[in-house]
Write a structure and sequence with these properties.
This protein is mainly beta. The chain has one domain. The protein contains 1 helix and 14 strands. It has an 8-stranded antiparallel β-sheet, with no helix packed on it. It has a 4-stranded mixed β-sheet with strand order 5-4-11-12, with no helix packed on it. A hairpin with a 3-residue loop joins strand 7 and strand 8. Keywords: Signal.
Length: 185
């Protein structure tokens, strides 16, 4: 009899644990990814040409000049809830780059059917400099001081997102921060 009670109890516990997974709801991703290649490197449109979105670190060449080290940004995405753009890149380590936007992306021309949702697909992203017609692929430049990223110089001022539905949204850059990812042991 005790064996029967033990088996019933075991079956009930296992059944309860098995069915409890239906109570967990997977959080929907609120990220809209930029166009990218198979390796995850992000593309932007520069005067009709597709180029990698990069950050640059000037480095002294020893003769009074500078060499430019370009680092491609990877897996760039716009987060709807946080109103940020997040990317990764490698230089002296693995880094997370966060672009804070001044406001939610807006449209020049009002088109009521256009909304940014987690189902939106960006077909093209354009980065502009000080003037909207000056398109570029270099988001920022920085220096490395004592093995830390310093002296950020933001080159990009405005992102233009074009969706697969031909809607265009503008997003003004407020500031950019870079955090070095720590490796888990």
């Amino acid at each position: 009899m005790k064996l029967f009670q033990f088996l019933c109890c075991l079956v009930m516990v296992c059944t309860l644990q098995w069915s409890s997974n239906q109570f967990y709801v997977k959080a929907a991703s609120k990220d809209i990814y930029f166009p990218k290649n198979k390796s995850g490197y992000t593309y932007v449109d520069v005067d009709g040409d597709t180029e990698y979105l990069i950050v640059t670190r000037p480095q002294s060449d020893g003769d009074g000049g500078y060499l430019l080290n370009d680092y491609r940004l990877k897996n760039c995405r716009y987060n709807i809830d946080k109103n940020t753009i997040n990317c990764e890149f490698k230089d002296i380590g693995d880094h997370q780059l966060t672009v804070n936007l001044k406001s939610k992306p807006y449209q020049d021309k009002e088109k009521s059917s256009c909304k940014l949702t987690e189902k939106t697909v960006f077909s093209k992203v354009v980065l502009s400099g000080r003037k909207p017609e000056d398109t570029l692929n270099e988001l920022l430049s920085y220096e490395v001081v004592k093995n830390k990223i310093a002296n950020l110089n933001i080159n990009g001022r405005l992102f233009k997102f074009v969706t697969k539905d031909k809607c265009t949204f503008n997003a003004k850059i407020s500031n950019i921060s870079i955090v070095t990812k720590t490796k888990k042991n």
